[in-house]
Amino acid sequence: MRNKWGGLRLVPVLELANISKHFGAIQAVNDVSFSLEAGEVVGLMGDNGAGKSTLVKMIAGNFRPSHGTIHLDGKELVMHKPADARQNGIEIVHQDLALCNNLTAAANVYLGRELRKGVGPFRILDYGAMYKRAGQLFAELKSETRPRDLVKQMSGGQRQAVAIARTMLSQAKIVLMDEPTAAISVRQVAEVLNLIRHLRDQGIAVVLISHRMPDVFDVADRVIVMRRGRKVADKKIASSSPEEVTGLITGAIEQVA
């Protein structure tokens, strides 16, 4: 198998095999399989209740599958908590971003992973090192976000840059993004889509959960559509259309190969 750059890659970075999840009598996800390559952006679409969030929470370690397996770089991955996913290079950017408004951009990037300097009990926070590295990450993302800016003063696009920089700090292999362009301006949407492109260009795989059809067709390589807990389509963007995806989401089109 060759990756999108033409080089040989023996296994996908992520592979889900026959994943299911039920909560009592409720079948939230039913027998879903797909793979994800490094540097690939996959749009995950479906109506409310289609199973998207449950599927992503299994990849992120929040839920354990009732059935099926998850493989990372060809090795089966069993997770009991979100920290297990993070330790294996899987990061999630939640819709609410989970940022602290009263802290700086750099402090949010390093939240829970603060750098310290000194010896023994005299160690203190190394603000200089955190500001410097956060600035480098924002520069890599080509974001106007500055390390010393307070999050409460930022635009929606800048807040997304902070959340994404946090995933880059941990050298993520896979970033799961939950509705990153919801409720922000057109200009900020363009900023966020550029951030996704920068992740892709660095070889990071992205799963983009979105209801915004133009965004998915702008940045994604493939689109996966779910309905009532099942995968009803997994197609290259170039061979699909917004009309087809809409039909799949609503049920006007039953399923496509």
UniProtKB/TrEMBL annotation:
Coiled coil: none annotated. Keywords: ATP-binding, Nucleotide-binding. GO terms for molecular function: ATP binding; ATP hydrolysis activity. It comes from the Bacteria. The keyword Nucleotide-binding applies. Residues 14-253 form the ABC transporter domain. Pfam families: ABC_tran. Belongs to the ABC transporter superfamily. This is ABC transporter related protein.
